[in-house]
TrEMBL record:
<keyword id="KW-0456">Lyase</keyword>
<dbReference type="InterPro" id="IPR019999">
    <property type="entry name" value="Anth_synth_I-like"/>
</dbReference>
<dbReference type="InterPro" id="IPR015890">
    <property type="entry name" value="Chorismate_C"/>
</dbReference>
<dbReference type="Pfam" id="PF00425">
    <property type="entry name" value="Chorismate_bind"/>
</dbReference>
<dbReference type="InterPro" id="IPR005801">
    <property type="entry name" value="ADC_synthase"/>
</dbReference>
<keyword id="KW-0479">Metal-binding</keyword>
<protein>
    <submittedName>
        <fullName>Salicylate synthase</fullName>
        <ecNumber>4.2.99.21</ecNumber>
    </submittedName>
</protein>
<dbReference type="GO" id="GO:0043904">
    <property type="term" value="F:isochorismate pyruvate lyase activity"/>
</dbReference>
<feature type="domain" description="Chorismate-utilising enzyme C-terminal">
    <location>
        <begin position="173"/>
        <end position="426"/>
    </location>
</feature>
<dbReference type="InterPro" id="IPR019996">
    <property type="entry name" value="Salicylate_synthase"/>
</dbReference>
<keyword id="KW-0460">Magnesium</keyword>
């Protein structure tokens, strides 16, 4: 964002999650997206412009005027071009991308509801950044600046909210039977792996900002987010990147595959870790995910630059621990950040292998549309840098209700009961911290 109106106050923010939650719950800044990356938290609010993409319609808004049109091409190219038409003047963009965004690249549009939302990006008037340098506020008037600092100050030493228990073992979706079907398809040679998920409806209205704060105190995410945008509220603790492209054009993705519970005590956690790193099913699942991610980055990177690091490291993410690797390459000349996102989206660890057949299986066997689950929350800078967090371990809410969702990677060796338990382990990163409104 342009620095001409930035106001810096160096103050030590002891609990950035509490500060972000307080800003969101104040309900005085309109729609917002809060995004945490290592070392920085940003609260972006009060959109002055937006780009919304549905299956058949593109809506571009700037300062209250909306232009509506049909579109053609791929969703990624349409978003890239649409942002380029706006007088951003150095501003960043923030928003969400639904799982169904992938259907064009993977030849799966026949599965889509014609009314489905694909993406919603917004350009904020106000940004509040909290990091090592203090609090930096951009775009706000003098009175708003003081209000923001007062809200941050009021968040200090405030008590954590109390959660409302949610029953995560109820399963009206027939998850085990769907896993059985997928295993049969895999063994018949249709594909190698698919991630099947299940939805858990919540029987009450959720306080999303309070849930974010409580859950963040118990999670160790790669990224986290909190948003209210386009009729959707959500908060989550992303375990991995779908894609990141920095100012040096380095593309990064972080496939996680292979899961065991975590947080049950040192002895139990250590035993689970040992079991994870020697389980053939988990090793195979992870290795083919890394292989696919490497091939995807290779398709948009300079020859010789793609590389894998931290292969099969174990990373702890809230209530679970995963096998993890990092894949990087340098974006080739003529390729954009959106090209990288298009080839890496959806994350291989949330779709399947081969990705086209895996996504087809997801649409057939998951039943209802996924929406934001296994999609991405994104930030886009004026330089073309992009950061896209995989949306898992999250709570979602619209006027129709609130829900959780979790999945597991299904391969030929999968057992339905074990995969169901894995969804419960993953739901354990968010379900115990849901706060009733």
């Amino acid at each position: 964002m342009s620095t001409t109106d930035e106001r810096l106050r160096v103050e030590y923010v002891t609990d950035p999650a509490a500060a972000m939650s307080r800003l969101a719950s104040a309900d005085r800044f309109g729609e917002y997206v809060m995004y945490e990356r290592p070392g920085e938290w940003v609260f972006a609010a009060d959109p002055i412009g937006s780009v919304e993409l549905d299956v058949h319609e593109l809506r571009v808004t700037w300062e209250g005027r909306t232009t509506t049109s049909e579109w053609e091409g791929t969703p990624a190219s349409v978003l890239d071009t649409s942002l380029g038409t706006l007088p951003l003047e150095g501003r960043n963009a923030y928003g969400w991308i639904n799982f169904e965004f992938c259907a064009w690249a993977l030849d799966a549009t026949a599965h889509l509801d014609p009314r489905a939302n694909l993406a919603h990006l917004m350009i904020p008037r106000i940004e509040v950044r909290v990091g090592a340098s203090g609090v930096v506020i951009s775009g706000a008037g003098p009175d708003e600046v003081e209000d923001i600092h007062d809200l941050i100050a009021a968040s200090r030493d405030s008590a954590l909210p109390k959660p409302e228990p949610a029953d995560i073992r109820v399963d009206p979706t027939g998850y085990r039977d769907r896993v059985t079907t997928a295993v049969e398809e895999i063994r018949s040679g249709l594909y190698q792996k698919v991630i099947l998920s299940r939805k858990v409806d919540l029987p009450f209205v959720v306080d999303i900002p309070a849930t974010y704060r409580l859950g963040r105190a118990h999670n160790t995410p790669a990224r986290s987010f909190l948003l209210r945008l386009g009729g959707l509220e959500a908060a989550g603790y992303s375990p991995e990147l779908v894609a990141s492209v920095d100012d040096d054009r380095v593309v990064t993705t972080e496939p996680l595959a292979g899961t065991r519970a975590f947080g049950l005590g040192v002895e139990i956690d250590t035993a689970a870790r040992a079991d994870l790193v020697r389980d053939p099913k988990e090793i195979v699942e992870h290795a083919i995910s890394v292989q696919t991610s490497f091939a995807e980055i290779t398709s948009v990177a300079d020859p010789g630059t793609p590389a894998v690091s931290d292969f099969m490291a174990v990373r702890e993410r809230g209530s679970v621990q995963h096998l993890a690797s990092t894949v990087r390459g340098t974006l080739a000349a003529g390729r954009s950040s959106w090209d990288a996102l298009e080839v890496l989206f959806p994350s291989v660890t949330a779709s399947g292998i081969p990705k086209r057949e895996g996504v087809d299986s997801v649409f057939r066997l998951d039943g209802a549309p996924r929406g934001l689950y296994s999609g991405a929350v994104v930030t886009i800078s004026p330089t073309g840098a992009l950061d896209a967090a995989l949306v898992l371990r999250a709570v979602y809410q619209t006027t129709e209700g609130a829900w959780l969702r979790a999945g597991a990677g299904i391969v030929g060796q999968s057992r339905p009961e074990r995969e169901f338990e894995e969804t419960c382990e993953k739901l354990g990163s968010i379900a115990p911290y849901v706060v009733k409104a």
